[in-house]
Amino acid sequence: MQFTDLFIRRPVLACVLSLVIFLTGLIAYNKLAVRQYPAVSANVVTISTGYSGASASLVEAFVTTPLEQALQGISGVDYVSSVSSAGNSRITVSLNLNADLYQALIEINNDLTPVLKKLPSGVDTPVIKEGDSNSTPMMIISFSSSKLTPEAINDYLQRVVQPQLANLSGVAQANILGPRVYAMRLWLNPAKMAALGVTTENVSTALAANDLFAQAGSISTNSQVININIESSLNSATQFNNLVIKSQQDQYVRLSDIGYAELGAQTKASSLYVNGKPAVGVGIITKSDANPLMVANTVKNEVAEIQKQLPQGLSVRIARDSSSYIQDSLSEVSHTVMVAIVIVIAVVLLFLGSFRALMIPLVTIPVSLVGTFALMYLLGYSINVLTLLAFVLAIGLVVDDAIVVLENVHRYIEQGFTPFKAALKGAREIRFAIIAMTLTLAAVYAPIGFSTGITGSLFREFAFSLAASVILSGIVALTLSPMMCARMMKAHHQPAGWQLKIEACLTKLRDYYSLLLNKVFNNKVNVLIIAGTVIVCGGIYIIPLVKNSTLAPKEDQNTVIGIVQGSMAASVVNTEAYTARLRELASNVSGVENVTVINGAGGDQSHAMLMVQLASKSQRSLSAGHIAGQLNKAAARIPGAKAMFVLPPSLPTSHDNYDIEFVIKTNGDYAELETHVNKILQAIHQNAGFGRVMTDLQFNKPEYNVTIQRDMATRLGVSVSGIASVLTNALAEPQSSEFVNNGLSYYVIPQVIASGQASITGLNQLYVTAESGAKIPLRDLIKVTMTVNPSSLNHFQSQRSVTIQATLSHRYSTEQALNFLEVIAKKDLTAQMSYATSGNTRQYLEESSSVYFIFIAALLFIYLSLSAQFESFIDPLIILMSVPFSIAGALGTLFLIGGSLNIYTEIGLVTLIGLIAKHGILIVEFANQSQKSGESLLVAIKQSARVRFRPILMTTAAMVLGAVPLVFASGAGSEARYQLGWVIVGGMMIGTMMTLLVLPLMYYLVNTAKMAFKDKGKFRLNLLER
């Protein structure tokens, strides 16, 4: 008894098997996580180190470089970049995709520990954090008040809110935005200090002497233990004002005599504005493998609890929430799944002409799709945009096998067999073809499982979910479908009038196909020329598509990001004035709901970030890309700074917002590097394909160089360290001691009064103590000159570097921009300079080679799978001859719609290999059976093509029309699905047409040649004349 006979004869067994598959999937469905994309670990580790008062060059030499050298050899690292700016070093360690984050953190900690002892005194302990603190927060919770000061708000957030949010599951960082941390500011008046003979060294000494947190112990008696607390520290502005700075002959000079103390902010170098109103916020950055929807819901619930406990006068609102777009995107794909189901049902009904027959292939949809959830659960997958996208394509696929079975059984019923015998005979005959088609489509996705890049990490769930649904549909087609055919189809069914019309149309179409096929065999040379022309055209189309290739299409995520780079000398006050004008421009654009501005972004007062939140896509007339373009044009007319408005990255593996990040590295100095980079920038500005362009190296920050007159200092008995100490204490805002306020410790910062600090002439009022005790004017010991230097010094892979960051016009691709930059760089860079890429651009280059491997490996896997099933190395070649036609059709369609080669369309091309191969399997397998039954080669192939015409037509219509909702998608995330849909539609239509006409001819020619070799041992050159 054949395998299929068992289920035809035992209908309950067939039903139970399908019910078990369905129920298992249903149980698993309730346990699956819901997220935007599959869990991908694109980890970044940030190492931040403070060095108060140090210039960028000092930070580079004494902090950044030693730390970078210690990090060499960390496992799983893709590249290391760093920024050295005044008072701060930030090193970013970008790990390889899915690298072990915790192993990397352990290695980083272990490697940095020995180096810390060698760093200069005054350098803070490096802070190591998971995630990039400069990346765009997924959520921003803003707090504002008309009663509380920003410092008081910040203090409350630091004590209460930040710890609660930072400890939530999935949160990597909860950073305070626009921070105003408390500090005791000691404002020193140089004139009063000079009059009273007080130096900044005296102030530092007095602070150090009173910076005492002593533990006195306790007194024990027979009955109790009493602790003793010493009130030795200074904790209020009044206490600091009464601090004795200098005493001489019973006369005291207190701090209040030379200045004053006030409880203020540690720094005012950044600020946060929400819709033009000042606020202090908390930015939520999620872990790379966290579920953003779950994190967002958890944060919202926590914020609701926090709101109940807020002090009077303090209000809270969620200023930014990118999870709403994720939810919209998932809803949109879910809607597409339902539309595809309705379309496929309509198509199958149209071809079958019977509601009774419709139930046979229709039942495979819920069984196969719901059953797939079980495998997804076992593999740790989630319901996300890509697995739902797989379901959209699977809907047209899972009915294929059942349709093929149904058609074959129906053919035998028309020949006079009873439905039961027709089911037995039809299922036996088609069994091998079903298995071959199922395994073929599953095999095409096997290489994705071996890919370690973005394509493999993102599309593994897509591929295996689609393959699982197809395998389950094959099981249903071999078990449930034959049984349903035997019991639901009628031998003498009288069709309705509309059914007769449909049947007549299909019969005429099949007859016309038979005539056309005869003409093909009578004009072999012409047909082969036409076939070759189609393939050549596909090859021609691929040239502009390769030039137009990119990592992923830009998606409208209801957000536009503004990046501001002001003058390097600009204070945060100037930056606020500039961003206020940008905010006003953005607020007046149709579709903009709110604007959040972070001034002083990345620790640089001249930088800022704007997050322009848009209404949902369906509620506005302008796309996010169009709004970004409008804002870029408007920003170009505002003097004082550069602004670049871009769309957020489309993929979860991206941390940067730029289209292009091109890095120039050197072993030389920054001045020479800037000269050559400027040449490249001149070429870029002449290329209309580039939009806004920025670099992270600009020699436009004015600085004072203070040169110590060493000979004079020696003669007057003043040490160099004494001079440096005076300058540090006066200008560097040294965090010289700490005080306690309400259970938390804060810094004490002495500094020359701002009016004196603002002008270099204020140094003339400062004095240094000589060894003799004499007060020497600082002006006699130093020489001050003006210079211009970069505000930040950047490294890439431990080399000095400049990164060119740019947006691209709509019709200028990543590939074109890279080719252009590489040509210019090779021409203008010196021998000691080189170039590299970072961010999205680096990912694009890595994925380009990965996709080629997947495509070639998919062809190889299918060929080997078919060879094993057909026990032939020739038949699989015939079957795969339809692949070039399908690919040519897809590329031509992609070119006509103005699409690009990206990871979505490339996966679509891989999918086409399996889809189009199914047609060839049906034709070749039936032709082989016919030959074994005694038919001649020519009769067998023509009969096979005629018999398989209708199921091929039906399965193609189901697949193509099932993908139509992707083509007409317009909701959240539709940009990528739109191009993928056209690849499937165009590739299947052209591929099917050419398969029906060319593949039978190729089968005949190849088998004729094979027989000639077998019979006569030689190949006849006049094959085409036969």
Automatic annotation (TrEMBL):
GO molecular function annotations of the record: xenobiotic transmembrane transporter activity
A single Gene Ontology CC term: plasma membrane
Coiled coil: none
Places the protein is found: Cell inner membrane
Pfam families: ACR_tran
NAD among keywords: no
Principal location class: membrane
Keywords recorded for this protein, A-Z: Cell inner membrane, Cell membrane, Membrane, Transmembrane, Transmembrane helix, Transport
Topological relation to the membrane, as annotated: Multi-pass membrane protein
Name of the protein in question: Efflux pump membrane transporter BepE
